[in-house]
Amino acid sequence: MEFRVRYYRFYFLPPLYLVLAAFLFTLKQRRYQWVAAVCVLFALGINFFPAFQLHYLAAIVCLFVLISVAGLERIGPVAARTIVILCCAHFLFWYGLHAADNSALSRFLLRYDTWDGINHRNPERRIAVRDKLAKIPGQLLVIVRYAPQHVFQEEWVFNAADIDSARIVWARDLGAEEDRQLLAYYPNRKALLLEPDAETPELSEYTPETPAPQTEVTAPKDSKAPKKPLLRFEDVK
Question: Where are the domains of the chain?
C-alpha cells in the first residue's frame, strides 16, 4: 500500500495537503459527503488490485479537482493565493529538474518525485539500451537481472507475440540453473546481461555461472546399512 501513496501524490501537490485537511470541514454538507464516499468506493475497488495503474483513477480526477477547490475556498482568499503560488513553484522546481535530466543533481533528486510525472521513468534509459542492442548484429537473448530494491512496476521484459522468431528475446534472470536451460533452448542466440537498476543501465555479455561440482556421499565404514535391498520385486505377491 505504501507504493500507492505516490500515485495519489501525482494529483495533489504537497502544498495542497493543507487543502485536503481543510476539505474535511466541508463534510458537514451532504454534497461533499457524496464526493468523499465516491473516492472511498474507488479506493476500495482499485487499491487492492496488485497491478495498479494510474489511469484507474481517471474517472474521479474531476473529484480531486473539486476537493482542491472546495478546500481552497474553505481556507480563505489570502491563504488560497499563497498555496496556489506554492503549487506553481513546486511544479516549476520539478519541471526544471526534468529539463536538466542528465545532471547529477537531477538524477539524485528525481528519485523523490512522483512515479508518474514528466518524462516518467526516464525513457532515455530505455532508448539508450535499444540503441545499443540495434548495433549488435544477429539474434539476441537479453537476460534482465534486477537489483533487490527493484520496483516491480518498472518492467523491462516485453516480448513479441512470436517470441522464437523475434530478433531479441527478453527474459528475467531466474538463477544459474534456469538460465542454463534457457541458453540451451536458444543455442544460436548471443546472450547478453542487462542490469537496468544501475545508475546507467549496464549491458554486457552474459557469462553463465559454472555449476558447483557434485561430491558423492559415501557411507561410513562402520555403517550398519544393509548391503542388499530390503524388498525385491519377486517378493511382492
Answer: 2-112, 123-205
Residues 30-46 pLDDT 10s: 999 999 999 999 888 88
Give the C-alpha distances (Å, rounded to integers) separating 194 from 125, 145, 148, 174, 237. 12, 6, 15, 13, 60
d(CA 109, CA 91): 14
Contact present, 67 and 35 (Cβ < 8 Å): yes
The partner residues of 195 in beta bridges, in order of sequence, read 202
Q: What are phi and psi of 220, to 5 degrees?
A: -60, 155
pLDDT tens figures, 133-151:
999 999 999 999 998 877 7
Q: What is the DSSP string of the chain?
A: -HHHHHHHHTTS-GGGHHHHHHHGGGTTSHHHHHHHHHHHHHHHHHTT-SS--GGGGGGGHHHHHHHHHHHHHHH-HHHHHHHHHHHHHHHHHHHHHHHTTTSHHHHHHGGGS-SSSTTTT-HHHHHHHHHHHHTS-S-EEEEE---TT--TTS------SSGGGSSEEEEE---HHHHHHHHHHSTTSEEEEEETTSSS-EEEE--PPPPPPPPPP---TT----SS-SS-GGG--
Euclidean distance between CA atoms 147 and 154, whole angstroms: 12
